[in-house]
Amino acid sequence: MTFSSEISPPSRLGAHVLRVNRGRLLLAFCLTAVLSLSVHAVMLQLFDVPYPSAQISSPLPDIVNSAIAVWAAIWLFAQMRRTWPHRSRLVHAGILFVLVCGLNETLRGWFMNGYCTSARGWLFFATMAMPALLVYAATAVAAALVERVSGTRRAFHLAALAVSVLLGVFAFAWVSWGKAALFAAFGDMVAGGGWCRLPYGMNVLVPAYLTFIEPALACLMCCALASPSLCKNRAMRTVQFMFLTLALKKQLLMSLFYAIYAPLPFASALVSMGQFTLEAAVLGAATAVSWTFARNGVETAKPAP
Fold it and tell me: pLDDT per residue over 49-98, tens digit each?
């Protein structure tokens, strides 16, 4: 399974790669969002799979998963440069920042956490999101710099690898310190805990499903940008984009790491975190299938003028 890493191809792609049947796309998008979140909801509600709340002391899982996410974001940025060649790097970096935030459910996480706590919880969780937002911004800037200075395929891969490792280490150190400092300063805002309890009723499930539009829409945009550089075989393209989604959502190795390092039985920990890994995998695969379905019959061979 290979990903194209060309940065400046002789004939660039154009807006034609984004043309879709809108009716098909809307239908497939709605089904994808519902199906993806239902994986987690069903495992949590019906099969009593525990929520992965145990803390991991080792820094390795966060560093490795963050580094993989940065590498995937750098690759996606390079494909964005091909798909929308007439936009500036600043615009592309801004788009990448929004997509990474969306895939990792930044607004959704803030809303649902605030919704399930007190009025002060909205401010607390907005504050707690700041360290991760800075990492996402640094990732977008780094992706633009790597694409800018890398003139060859080899240079691109070497630069992407080096930057991914550095940002992975920085992300762990910064987010760990930042969240600890912010919690020490503002933790009393949520001292009473939240009111959302299993089994969730419609007053929790409805906003949970509605706010899942954020990661589902970000995933769809990533698919539109990445698809021209993926394998032409539909099945392989679906698998490739599923792995790309897992990487961007930091779920590619998370279940395995959690099973190894969490203070829980291996199988229990694997299934516990696995509900989110499976949710991300279904989101990626279903989005790729949806995009193919929406593109079916749309002219793709002729470049845009």
Answer: 999 989 898 999 999 999 999 999 999 999 998 888 888 999 999 999 99
Q: Could you give the residue ranges of the DSSP H alpha helices within 46-152?
A: 60-83, 89-103, 106-115, 119-128, 130-149
Rounded to an integer, the average pLDDT of 27-49 is 93
Residue 223 Cα distances to 135, 138, 227, angstroms:
22, 22, 6
How many angstroms separate the Cα of 139 from the Cα of each of 17, 76, 116, 285? 25, 11, 30, 24
Helix-strand-coil percent breakdown of the chain, rounded to 5?
Answer: 75, 0, 25
The one-letter code for the residue type at 172 is F
User: What confidence tens digit (pLDDT) does each residue in 255-269 have?
Assistant: 999 999 999 999 999
Residue 177 burial (10 A CB sphere; 0-12, 13-18, 19+):
exposed
CB 263 within 8 A of CB 248: no
Helix (H) or strand (E) holding 36: helix 22-45
Question: Global pTM?
Answer: 0.90
CA pair distance 130, 10, nearest whole angstrom: 40
